[in-house]
Amino acid sequence: MAKHQCPNCHSPISLSYLLFSKYTTQYRCVKCSALMASNRRRKITGLTLAFFSAFLFSLTNSHIQNPLLTVLVIFIVFISILWLVPNQVELVDEQSKA
Question: First CA to last CA across the chain, in angstroms?
């Protein structure tokens, strides 16, 4: 079972949506066309990771002399944690939006 999947048809949600979309961006499932949006768990995860990344950068920057390598390490940690937290989307009621 995939961690990030459509609540309606259980088809996987792409990693690019989780990484590059804004919190207000809605996502439409490729298979069933269900409309989804990020929920509170995704917003809290993103804010926590932003603060954690800043802290981790200041901590590892003194140990790793190359700042590009430091950013790469933090980016890998950021993506890994973001991908491990499940249920970051929920269905949107299209009737109330219209």
Answer: 33
